[in-house]
Amino acid sequence: LSALQLKIVRGTGQMVTVGQVFEPVVLRVTDSSPTPNPVQGAGVTFQSFVLRPLADPPIDSGGESNNGQNAMPVILSSSQLVVTSDSSGLASLVPWPGSNSGAVQIEVVASAGTSAAQQFTALSLWPVPAASVGVAAPVPLAAGVPSSQTRRQNSGNPDFPERSEPQKNLR
Known about the structure:
The structure is a single chain. This protein is mostly beta strands. It contains one helix and eight strands, in the order ββββββββα. Strand 7 (104-112) and strand 8 form a beta hairpin. Residues 135-168 have low confidence and may be disordered.
């Protein structure tokens, strides 16, 4: 009996808005022959952890209490499900936040046999508010490059040249 391999087919890295349903994550179980063959009837164990989404990394305040490490994730729930692979070696799982409402991060580890494993993440996030009507969302500019509006406002000011001409020595 050859060792099993587990390959991701599709559905990883999903991000949905809170309340939307995830697409299935599909994995294929194969044997370890030089030309891998699908394995029917293999048990694929999906271990899911529903977490509170991690916030931005901490700001280093320079104090002794901040060690520069991110906080440990908060596990809201966990579950385990065994799915049997079909005749094509496929096994799938729809990531599910369970009874947890709001934004969540779902970490899943899938395993088959003694050594085949894959890990993936799915995120359910709050919607990003759209910019107000008639007001463009702010877009960061490259450092040192004034916007066209800034150039217009400073027209004629020698500190803000409109063209890329060398400045004259103003003594």
